[in-house]
Amino acid sequence: MKTRIESVLERIRTAALDAGRQPESVRLVAVSKTMPAEMVRRAAEAGLTVMGENYIQESREKVEALADLDLTWHFIGHLQSNKAKYAVRLFDLIHSVDSIKLARELDRQAAKHDKVQDILIQVNTGKEASKSGVYAEEALALVREAGQLDHLAIKGLMTLPPYFNAPEKVRPYFRQLRELRARIASEALPGVSMAELSMGMTGDFEAAIQEGATLVRIGTAIFGERQ
User: Fold this and answer.
1) Cα dihedral sign for 22, 91, 153, 204?
2) Torsion of CA 17, 208, 71, 181, to 10 degrees
3) pTM passes above 0.70
4) 126-144 pLDDT, tens per residue?
5) Structural domain range at position 60
6) Helix segments in 147-219, DSSP class H
């Protein structure tokens, strides 16, 4: 696993430099969903610090089992409002906020813990019915409304674009998210930062980095194929 991690980190570094960016401006989120805690521990021992999870129940067990490690946990899956109370307790950053209903519930739960919950707004750049996320033309309105909630801090945007077996075909969706971020940032909304762009996975993260990704979500290239 250490060799795979080193390879991914080198590819991130090369893609950033090729795009005229500092390599440290891109952070690796190791997608540890469905992986046992011991495998996540090995990834941490190899130097990874940010883990991405998709399922609340699985995450609860894993975060507890690995509490002795200094890890940052990101929730990257679809989040239902009734699971918001767990998400706020477990996660440092939630990538997948796609409605004002969910934002309000996260705000309510974060208030109970006297916490300001960092979130990203998920944008459905491909307008796919099978995927969550607000459409690009509705994103600014959601950011405006959610940005007024006292216990949420909007840190940027996330997308899960249509799947293509060729990174160049995905690039326009990454570019769309970057351009949307620039439009929202130009509004200078109080309490809203557009520092983060969460986009790019094992098959296309280099293209995502070239289009401005700050968080790349990589699982298979680190942990191997999921069972």
Assistant:
1) positive
2) 110
3) yes
4) 999 999 999 999 999 999 9
5) 2-223
6) 167-185, 205-210
Strands 50-53 and 27-31: parallel
First to last CA, the chain: 16
Burial 120-150 (b: 16+ CB within 10 A, else e): bbbbbbbeeeebbbbebeebbebbeebbebe
Query: At 99, which CATH number?
Result: 3.20.20.10
Owner of token pair 């307790």: 89
Angle between helices 136-146 and 100-112 (to 10 degrees): 30
Query: What are the pLDDT digits (tens) for 76-105?
Result: 999 999 999 999 999 999 999 999 999 999
Tally of domains in the chain: 1
Measure the CA–CA gap between 47 and 65, rounded to whole angstroms.
Answer: 18
- Collapsed DSSP state (helix, strand, coil) of residue 143: helix
Tokens 């909007």 locate to 154
Q: Are 174 and 168 in contact (CB under 8 A)?
A: no
15 and 205 in contact (C-beta within 8 Å)?
A: yes
Contact 31/75 with Cβ under 8 angstroms? Answer: no
pLDDT for res 227:
64
